[in-house]
Amino acid sequence: xxxxxxxxxxxxxxxxxxxxxxxxxxxxxxxxxxxxxxxxxxxxxxxxxxxxxxxxxxxxxxxxxxxxxxxxxxxxxxxxxxxxxxxxxxxxxxxxxxxxxxxxxxxxxxxxxxxxxxxxxxxxxxxxxxxxxxxxxxxxxxxxxxxxxxxxxxxxxxxxxxxxxxxxxxxxxxxxxxxxxxxxxxxxxxxxxxxxxxxxxxxxxxxxxxxxxxxxxxxxxxxxxxxxxxxxxxxxxxxxxxxxxxxxxxxxxxxxxxxxxxxxxxxxxxxxxxxxxxxxxxxxxxxxxxxxxxxxxxxxxxxxxxxxxxxxxxxxxxxxxxxxxxxxxxxxxxxxxxxxxxxxxxxxxxxxxxxxxxxxxxxxxxxxxxxxxxxxxxxxxxxxxxxxxxxxxxxxxxxxxxxxxxxxxxxxxxxxxxxxxxxxxxxxxxxxxxxxxxxxxxxxxxxxxxxxxxxxxxxxxxxxxxxxxxxxxxxxxxxxxxxxxxxxxxxxxxxxxxxxxxxxxxxxxxxxxxxxxxxxxxxxxxxxxxxxxxxxxxxxxxxxxxxxxxxxxxxxxxxxxxxxxxxxxxxxxxxxxxxxxxxxxxxxxxxxxxxxxxxxxxxxxxxxxxxxxxxxxxxxxxxxxxxxxxxxxxxxxxxxxxxxxxxxxxxxxxxxxxxxxxxxxxxxxxxxxxxxxxxxxx
Length: 682
Fold this sequence. Notes:
The chain has a 6-stranded mixed β-sheet, sandwiched between helices. Strands 24-23-22-25-26-29 form a 6-stranded mixed β-sheet, with helices on both faces. A hairpin with a 2-residue loop joins strand 3 (96-99) and strand 4. The protein is α/β, with parallel strands linked by helices and 682 residues long. The chain has 21 helices and 33 strands. The protein has 3 domains: 4-55 and 116-325, Rossmann fold, CATH 3.40.50; 389-439 and 637-677, Immunoglobulin-like, CATH 2.60.40; 442-635, von Willebrand factor, type A domain (Rossmann fold, 3-Layer(aba) Sandwich).
């Protein structure tokens, strides 16, 4: 009998390592008991239990002079067009705010984005009985494919977001878990997202559809949020009309609250229930009912097919859409009369736009202001590296990390502040803080070939990778890809190295080799990392035979990305290719041991890294290659550069360009950010 695996879009939204906050817990195995699980048999939220909550200090808080304005109030504002798409690029002068009959002056303005604005997100998951056929997939291979696509789509979520999970119905598969109620706050707000992910892995759909109660618990949970920006996602199939009608009053509260709201309808709108559906369950989606839920809540509707029908591709697309819109909007600070009417925001010159504004509770602002920024530690010591407060507290203070290499890729250390030249938006910028550090943290991606020819080599590769990860800097963030016919992300970005090591057991050989596509996707994932140094380690035993991109495409991307691409080729580059590939199998033997040493060497040259070729079954050579790569990473030095950036008045974009150079050495390769979040206009 086949094992059943439950997987939902919720898993993509709260995948471990994507929203890692400042610390991430180890990813649990499916069905593992959780101390964070709470349940109730009523429709009210369960008593909240302790869960890791390591909140970040928002980078876009209003300056002290605005916060101290008498009657100051801050509004989280979203603006959408007639199609429900966010409208960006608006300026302060486009908005009008009134408090009763009086205009309220705007004393602070900022356009926000998902990259810079943390969000308090509540996911309300309908896991009632009718959702079974829409959210359950079969076999480990299907799980890997669905999870890979969803995790990749979710990788752009802000790492600082806090997440809570409300379940409507459902049954835990493990007898060690407490029973779920009709509506359950399964996970209170947490920045350790593996806790929420654990609930999803271990819940099977069952029970009644109590939408109104689930949404109400979600709203009550959001009332205890810690960030100014708040959002709710509801996942359902819309099949119970009575449940939808009962949800109308609570949806009106959502609409009037200013909370960002999405409804994701999962199922097939063309399906019709019949004898088969009575036996196996329905895959039908009531698209009209789902749209009604979104309209009544003042939100947006998205749709996705049953995950088994398309390996979760449409769910991944829905996740990507939500990712782009989460945190999008504007922060408006107004100086209203104390005790006056609540501020009302409008766009006088765009009457067709939908403007939603939520008053940010003063205690939330106060807590955010009091929250310290995360300290920067010098690797290998207990010394905190940070700029003096008289500099770091200045409005617009920004700090970046940079590495410098010679044309041959060897690192350059010993530079001083005077060796660097910095420009912000084309204007020379003074460097106010400088620190030359060693062994700076990196973003490290590990790409493992799992094509059919790797079947006998994976045990050696797993052991070598595990040892490699254990030697990394504890502050390095890591991710893991498996690639065969296409790349699959097994572990998204995380600082939890143990979580990645646990995923090595998921490496199984099957299919052909999409080496080029996988490196391109690995570069994209690495560029979403939070450390300035970005590294890929590629382990493969063959040649690309199924990518849609070419070697030249990859070489151009590597050369322009600043990502170091190390590689280990397992095989014999002198053997000519020519084996016959039949499905996941290699016939004839040549391709099983032929490795494309030329391309791997070109990739190393393009990025200033190294490539290694090790014979099949030569475990010591494989281990030594991993050790040398780890040593090379540890020897690379970085520089912390702090400065006070300014933006012109009413500057609309959310980012501003910067350029860092070492003028005395035009041939030096300076790896530093090209863009920074735009500072608040002064």
